[in-house]
Amino acid sequence: MIAAIGLGALVGAVLFALVLHVAHPRPAPLVELARFDAAHNHTVDSQVAAVEPGRSPASGLPAVVGVWVAGQLTRRGVSHVSLRQDLALTGRTYEQAITRKVLFATAGLLTALLLLVVVPAAVGAALPTGAPLVVAVLLAAGLFFLPDLEAKADATRRRAEFRHALGAYLDLVALEMAARAAPAEALPAAAKIGTGWPLALIRDTLYRATRAGRDPWQALSDLGQRIGVNELRDLGQLVSLVAHDGARVRSTLTARAHTMRRHELANLQGEAGKADQSMQMAQVLIGLGYLLFIGYPAIVAVLNF
Q1: Residues in Cβ contact with 194 at an 8 Å cutoff, skipping those fewer than 6 apart
Q2: Rounded Cα distance, 126 and 117, in Å
Q3: Is the dihedral of CA 100, 106, 109, 110 positive or negative?
Q4: Which of 12-26, 90-104, 110-124 has the lowest mean pLDDT?
Q5: Over the stretch 28-78, which tens digit does the pLDDT of each residue have?
Q6: Residue 75, class by beta-carbon neighbours within 10 Å (0-12 exposed, 13-18 middle, 19+ buried)?
Q7: How far is CA 65 from the centre of its chain?
Q8: DSSP code of 98?
Q9: pTM for this entry
Q10: Which is nearest to 131 in space by CA: 153, 113, 152, 149?
């Protein structure tokens, strides 16, 4: 009895820790921007920490193991470009993501072994040889990729928000240039209109590019590459080629904004179509259930006659 209670408490504690890691509280947009900025400033420090775990500012054995694993993957050429782009929008570093992956996999492995070895032994049941280990490995592998799926879902939502704001921003830049403003002035002036996190990120990127003496279009292209927004990356590269001609830049911005709005409209129409199909399927199931409810007494009466 005591062993069963202790085992249940241990499994509950592990599941509770997993829930806390998955369902983490959502920070404010300004806090997320600060984390994004901090990750951008300490890129070099993170790379050094990945090679030398002793210099990592993270504390605790899981963080040290995560940093070590991230460093080993980087040394062996495992870049995880898609994961890094997703993490750039979620406020986490690559080392933190690897730490969570290792924690989830270890917790899943230990939990499965406890449930499939201790519980059958306590009740006197016997499982096939090697079955607990196979199930534990499969569960650990599934939980190992759970942070990737979480980051992908969160980053997809944020990219949609960024693309929506980017189309309006390009129109504002074109209007600023139509009012005889130079691109160097139109870009930050248009970014000052609005309080959302996408425009705040663009303002921060342009400010840093100005302070560093970089081309603003190249800075925006690097931002698009970093967060996985291909529209911004391609736009920065395209405009850099015709930056000397203000009219061509303005027409390029207007055309790209129009294309992004059409693409967004097509996506919305596709989502509406999927929702409509789901609603039709629900209606069909409700109709079948209603017919079964009406016809059940008659069927029972015929069978009992």
Answers
A1: 165, 168, 169
A2: 9
A3: negative
A4: 12-26
A5: 665 666 666 665 554 433 432 333 333 344 456 667 777 788 888 878 777
A6: exposed
A7: 23
A8: H
A9: 0.66
A10: 113
Please measure the distance between the N-terminal and C-terminal CA atoms of the chain and give it in whole angstroms. 53
Neighbours of 197 (CB within 10 A): 19
**Residue 218's CB: how many other CB atoms inside 10 A?**
15
Angstrom distance (rounded) from CA 259 to CA 152: 25
Tokens of residue 184, six digits = 């160097």
Average pLDDT over residues 217-226: 88
Spatial distance between the Cα atoms of 50 and 251, rounded to a whole number of angstroms: 45
Distances in Å between the Cα of 279 and the Cα atoms of 183, 272, 273, 282, 299 are 48, 10, 10, 5, 29
**Whole-number pLDDT of residue 45:** 38
Residue 42 has what pLDDT? Answer: 47
Q: Return the half-sphere exposure (C-beta side, CA atoms, 13 A cut-off) of residue 54.
A: 0
DSSP states along 167-214: HHHHHHHHHHHHTT--HHHHHHHHHTS--SHHHHHHHHHHHHHHHHT-
Structure token digits, residue 10: 């241990």
